[in-house]
Amino acid sequence: MQKAASERLRLENDLRLALARGEFELHFQPQVDARTNQIIGAEALLRWMHPTLGAQSPALFIPILEESGLILEVGGWVLAEACHACAQLLKQGMIDAAQFSLCVNISPRQFRQADFVERVDSCLASSHLPPNMLKLEITEGIVIQNIDDTIAKMNRLKRLGVTFAMDDFGTGYSSLTYLKRLPVDVLKIDQSFVRDATVDANDAEIIRAIVAMAHSLGLDIIAEGVEQHDQLEFLQQQGCHHYQGYLFSKAVPLQSFHQLLHDNRLPAPC
Ligand code: C2E
Ligand code: MG
Ligand code: MG
Q: 3-class DSSP state for residue 187?
């Protein structure tokens, strides 16, 4: 118990230094339209290379960043870095502003900042990224903390042109009343349902229900964690054509993402 606490404290101290030491990096995971096999977006995912322990899992260090408050600084860095990278890709003609979304994860603490909207606005302005290319991924944890403040902030950001995806959908409290009131554009089907959709009748049914709900609320859907062809086939049969997962590619450094975009533009061999 004591060892775990001291280990956590050590990681927290190391995380305090990580930004200054340049140990963080962003990777980009493509999002794909299965009907055309075209890349339609990317999710920016934070990576941390610890100087002695090596690569650390976000599942381990994101909660530490969140609890310690360090997420404010690191999340600000992620947003700026991601917008900058995407604006570069646009400038290089690698992506189309009307057909590509940059997805950035926003933590509850980050979203609750009083000046969050201004921060996003200034990031867009300094990177010259068209606001309609930015999609913020929020979780149900953000929503339940203060629904009125959440909706007000989301509406202000939507007026700027920014859109929203509800991440890990189906794993939280998913009140339909909340969902109806929230100005979200996309539901991301959580990978825990996708994993067993082809073998577990309950997971398959949950996916059917999410897709039906998204359709009736006029929301787009994307599935995450797609690893196998039969999972993708099942999703497409249900009417979910957008996906993200190892089947196409894991998250890769910007340079490799550049290559993926390049290869994706080549016509498919006959
Ligand atoms: P998430 O936002 O739901 O991101 C999707 C996670 O699923 C990523 O894990 C991604 O690498 C993984 N993934 C994608 N496709 C597959 C697949 O086919 N199979 C499997 N098994 N996994 C797949 P990652 O990068 O480890 O991130 C975990 C979580 O950490 C993210 O879940 C997100 O909640 C958080 N996170 C990552 N980067 C950031 C960030 O910059 N800010 C914040 N606030 N949270 C972040
Ligand atoms: Mg996400
Ligand atoms: Mg997710």
A: strand
> SS3 of 228, please?
coil
Residue among 105, 186, 243 whose CB has most ligand 1 atoms within 8 A, to mutate: 105
What residues have a C-beta under 5 A from ligand 3, the ion? 167-168, 224
The number of the ligand nearest the C-alpha atom of 31 reads: 1
Q: What is the pLDDT of residues 73-120, one digit of tens each?
A: 999 999 999 999 999 999 999 999 999 999 999 999 999 999 999 999
- Smallest CA-to-CA distance from 241 within 99, 41, 42, 33 is with 33
CB 161 within 8 A of CB 130: yes
pLDDT digits (tens, 9 = 90+) for 14-58: 999 999 999 999 999 999 999 999 999 999 999 999 999 999 999
42, 103 in Cβ contact below 8 A? Answer: yes
Contact present, 89 and 261 (Cβ < 8 Å):
yes
> Whole-model pTM above 0.70?
yes
